[in-house]
Amino acid sequence: MRSKELGFKRAWSTTGVVALTGALLLTSAPTASADYIRDKQWVIDVINFEKVWKESQGQGVTVAVVDTGVDGTHPDLVGQVLKGKDVTGGGGDPQDDTDGHGTGMASLIAGHGHGVNNSSGVVGLAPKAKILPIKAAVRDDYDDDQWAEGVRYAVDRGAKVINLSFADSLAHPDSEGAAAIEYALQRDVVVVSGTGNDGSEGLEYPAKLPGVVAVGAVDESLKVWGNSNYGPGVTLTAPGVNIARADTSHSSGYAEGSGVSDATAYVSATAALVRAKYPDLTAGQVINRLIKSATFLDRDVKKVPDEEYGYGLIRPYSALTMDIPKGPKQGPLAQSSPSTSTNSGAAPDDNDSTSQAKKKKKSSSGSTLLIAGIAAAVLVIGGILFAVLRSRRNGGNGGPGSGGGTPPHGTGYPPQPPTGYQQYPNTPPNQGYPAPPGQSPQHPNPYAQQPPHQGQ
Q: Which stretches are transmembrane (predicted)?
């Protein structure tokens, strides 16, 4: 089952979502369904949440979830959800989530479970972070004028990370959505969005916009999920397949599914962990830590960033503990104003007619100068050639070209990275780490490995 589409806008709601209830245990397990939910969360063991939490739990950081709302009465989220805002125009309650998607994303970020020692239900990667709910859609139809208002509201209310687990193809560089994201980037906010669930080449907006952390999904074997969109601009990958999460649209309160939505939530949670431990870092420097600590495992990656894995698979513990220089304040991703960078991360046909007209006008005015320049150059070169020939006829030496010339511009240098990226060093594709004892080589666990030495 694919994501439901309404026009050109859709949520990266997980595909194949099913309710998780005690009935799924068949006759073999008398335990409560919520305990079963905890057991279904394979990401907890792979990332080793307990080890990560010794370094940070996201305390003091607000993560805005721009989605279908977040139900703060869910037992796994009680006390975690702030007031928020409904920007759909209905004037409703941002905690009224009849779709369940936003609640699910919030649970992966800041769920704390419930019951004895919080051992039941969904637990998020940053359980002490606060969730600011922004209800931008009732189901999965997003309007960039509305969610843009939500992004600005989140920034003004102190959100340090914004999770956008949806796509809006109209959020091109000249849109209200793009302007709102630029507003967030200029105010030191980490913005995270999913690449898309179509399994095709090309990122969706808003993940495609400059400065946004574009996230793809990996499965339980930590390989890129077949439906995860790929191409230039992918920043990171994270678990996004067979993910158990809170879901208020089911009577059990839980569901399981697959999609880049879930992967996006885990990256947002990781950003919250880093911001909690390193409050002096800028948003760009936080992203730098996420990128520098990521891994490709033993994938045969030829060029970084890779079009499937980006800079690699997130490693929250390494992001918190590696000795990584702060780097430039702006970080590794472009944060240019949409009005001046309409081509950043976009295909040539993504610009509207107004942008194309401006480009043509600029080209026309430039061509006149170019013709004049060529004419002048011809006269100069002609004069030089005449002098050289005359000198050679007269037996002269030392004319132009007699010595060692300057090599062509760019010779010997690697090609530049895709638009919107600076070349940042990364861990080699094959780090050579052995699998932990008892672990199958087909299911590598990068989170249980020791971080590489700085500079690798």
A: 369-389
Range of lowest pLDDT (177-181, 303-307, 434-438): 434-438
Q: State how beta strands 9-11 and 166-168 pair.
A: antiparallel
Nearest Cα neighbor of 234 from 274, 271, 266, 204 is 204
Residue with tokens 């019951």: 115
Most confident region among 18-22, 30-34, 66-70, 444-448 by mean pLDDT: 66-70
| 301 phi, psi to nearest 5 deg | -95, 125
Please, what is the angle between helix 101-110 and helix 260-277, to 10°? 40
pLDDT for residue 382 is more than 90: no
101 included as an active-site residue: yes
Are 194 and 260 within 8 A, CB to CB? yes
Whether residue 66 is contained in a domain is answered as: yes
CATH number at residue 240: 3.40.50.200
Contact 13, 140 (CB under 8 A): yes
Tally of domains within the chain: 1
261 is catalytic: yes
Domain span at residue 229 reads 9-345+422-448
Nearest to 125 by CA among 71, 234, 69, 51: 51
Report the C-alpha gap between 340 and 327 in whole angstroms: 25
> pLDDT tens across 181-238, in order?
999 999 999 999 999 999 999 999 999 999 999 999 999 999 999 999 999 999 999 9
Residues 6 or more apart in contact with residue 179 via CB below 8 angstroms: 148, 338
Q: pLDDT band at residue 34, thresholds of 50, 70 and 90?
A: low
Q: Which of 13, 33, 56, 67 is catalytic?
A: 67
> What's the whole-number mean pLDDT along residues 168-175?
95
Q: Does residue 396 fall inside a structural domain? A: no
414 domain-assigned: no
Catalytic residue among 33, 56, 74, 101: 101
Does residue 442 sit within a domain?
yes
pLDDT of residue 300: 87
**Close Cβ partners of 165 (under 8 Å, ≥ 6 residues apart):** 11, 12, 65, 67, 101, 105, 193, 194, 260, 261, 262, 264, 265
Using the predicted structure, report yes or no on whether residue 14 has a pLDDT greater than 60: no
